[in-house]
Design a protein that fits this description.
This protein is α+β, with helices and mostly antiparallel strands. It has two domains: about 120 residues, Jelly Rolls, CATH 2.60.120; about 80 residues, Winged helix-like DNA-binding domain superfamily/Winged helix DNA-binding domain (Arc Repressor Mutant, subunit A, Orthogonal Bundle), CATH 1.10.10. About 45% of the residues lie in helices and about 20% in strands. The protein has a four-stranded antiparallel sheet. Strands 2-7-4-5 form a four-stranded antiparallel sheet. Strands 9-11-10 form a three-stranded antiparallel sheet. The radius of gyration is 18 Å and the shape is elongated. The chain starts with a helix and ends with a helix. It comes from Anaerospora hongkongensis. InterPro entries: cNMP-bd_dom (IPR000595), cNMP-bd_dom_sf (IPR018490), Env_Response_Regulators (IPR050397), HTH_CRP (IPR012318), RmlC-like_jellyroll (IPR014710), WH-like_DNA-bd_sf (IPR036388), WH_DNA-bd_sf (IPR036390). Pfam families: cNMP_binding, HTH_Crp_2.
């Protein structure tokens, strides 16, 4: 049975009520995936949209110069693969699980029919796509105007705020296992620079790290560092 809690979260990509979701569920099937599973690849036919019930999914592209750029990390409550299904194009990037995940594969043609017959759902999807576009525009602006240390700090703050939970002392331990190479792809840098920058943020007392996790010790300090 689907956990409806994610659908009602204010952070959800598309927030459907129970009736709307049951309608979508009729044209979907669950997929339990292991860490590192490729959900779709560039140039694949776009036959399905995926709802993330559990886990985190990395969306990335490979550039002509052989560099990997992560364009987003999606979490429970998000839909992925929407644009290509709606515009009839092949996939423009890759989606890969960062941890064990549960996805619901929604038949693309059936979903398009639902949008035509249920304008309320169509408006919610359009609003979500507009919000996603705004996020991408912010990311591009950061790439152009911010140094790597501030881009990395912003990425850590955004990941921390997705969790909506902190320890008693106010620290936030990121539950998402990200390597420094993955962080580099997320902020448009290289692993060596991210390694140096993470050490800088540690020295400033903003974060603590080990091989298993990253802990945000002072999220306000990180935000002030970004806004300086």
């Amino acid at each position: 049975m689907v956990n409806y809690t994610n659908l009602y979260s204010p952070k959800a990509y598309v927030t459907l009520d129970e009736t709307e979701y049951k309608l979508v569920q009729q044209v979907a099937y669950p997929c339990k995936l292991k860490t590192g599973h490729t959900v779709f690849r560039e140039e694949d036919a776009a036959n399905y949209i995926y709802f993330i019930e559990k886990g985190h999914i990395k969306i990335y592209r490979n550039t002509l110069w052989g560099k990997t750029v992560t364009v987003g990390i999606r979490q429970a409550g998000d839909l992925i693969g929407v644009c290509e299904v709606l515009n009839g194009m092949s996939r423009r990037g890759y989606a890969e699980t960062l941890e064990p995940a549960v996805l619901w594969a929604i038949d693309g043609q059936a979903f398009r029919k639902i949008l035509q017959e249920r304008p309320g759902i169509a408006v919610k999807v359009a609003t979500a796509l507009a919000n996603r576009l705004r996020q991408v525009e912010t990311m591009v602006a950061d790439m152009v105007s911010m140094e790597v240390d501030r881009r990395l700090a912003r990425a850590l703050v955004n990941l921390a705020r997705q969790q909506d939970a902190s320890d008693e002392d106010g620290s936030i331990r990121l539950s998402l296992p990200l390597t420094q190479q993955e962080l580099a792809a997320l902020v448009g840098s290289c692993r060596q620079t991210v390694t140096t920058t993470m050490q800088k943020l540690k020295d400033l007392g903003f974060i603590e790290t080990n091989k298993k996790y990253i802990e945000i010790l002072n999220i306000k300090g990180l935000q002030d560092f970004i806004d300086r």
